[in-house]
Amino acid sequence: MSPAPANLTPRERLVVALDLPTAKEALAMADRLAGRVGMLKVGLELFCAEGPAFVKELQARVPVFLDLKLHDIPTTVRRALEVLLQLDPRLINVHAQGGPAMLEAAVEAVRAHRAAGGRTELLAVTVLTSLDREALAALGHAGRPEDLALAYAKLAQQAGCGGVVCSAWEAGSIREACGEAFHRLTPGIRPAGVATQDQARVMTPAQALKQGSTWLVVGRPITHAADPAAAAEGIVAEMEGR
Ligand SMILES: O=c1ccn([C@@H]2O[C@H](COP(=O)(O)O)[C@@H](O)[C@H]2O)c(=O)[nH]1
Questions:
Q1: Which pLDDT belongs to residue 199?
Q2: Which residues are annotated as a binding site for substrate?
Q3: When you count CB atoms within 10 A of the terminal residue's CB, does the N or C end of the chain come out lower?
Q4: What is the pTM of this model?
Q5: d(CA 207, ligand 1 centre) in Å
Q6: Level-2 CATH architecture, domain 5-239
Q7: Where are the domains of the chain?
Q8: DSSP H or E stretch at residue 218
Q9: CB–CB of 174/153 below 8 Å?
Q10: CA distances from residue 92 to 51, 131, 165, 221, 225 in whole angstroms, order as listed
């Protein structure tokens, strides 16, 4: 049984995005990171390439966040979740943009899974960390990404989700509005001086922790590093204030 998120150590809060093309490369990376990180994230690239069997194999080594960001009509999302929940990942997610009925359908599926002994928690994606104010304006959303993220977080909480995916810039206001127990999982983490790439709303590991992130997602700064284990250790050290 993993500890309650409020009691996690900095290392347990580190989630590494395994955005790699094959199971072979992903398992090799998992071996290099063994014991150094709290969770591994399987996203679209790896899941499309390797499917459910790979998730099962990975989960035998470390807890998995299945980051598929489901977004469809309520029935489709509920039925897809019922299939994916057979893998019993530690975390799974849907898009808050799917709206209240879709979120409620997702919650229903996860509640049934947990009632049957499953451990999965459901997160809702608020505003992708790759979007800035200008990109949101192009999508027809006037205003600040943080206000939209907070609105989606409140919707997700009302529907019964366990937390949200947001940028660390919004973690503090979401914690204040939704409470400590409502998780904030934050991608868009970049150690100082590291390229932001396609991320727009970024924060350093130390700042993100201070802002109230429950879990920090880091991908390329670790997986593309010459020494991924050392890069992960550097991030943990920064979170620990060493
Ligand atoms: O808003 C979001 C939601 C998910 N992600 C995912 O997190 C990782 C970030 O990888 P980096 O290499 O550290 O940029 C990636 O798998 C995304 O799909 C996100 O970035 N933002």
A1: 98
A2: 19, 41, 67-76, 129, 190, 199, 219-220
A3: N
A4: 0.97
A5: 17
A6: Alpha-Beta Barrel (3.20)
A7: 5-239
A8: strand 215-218
A9: yes
A10: 15, 21, 10, 23, 27
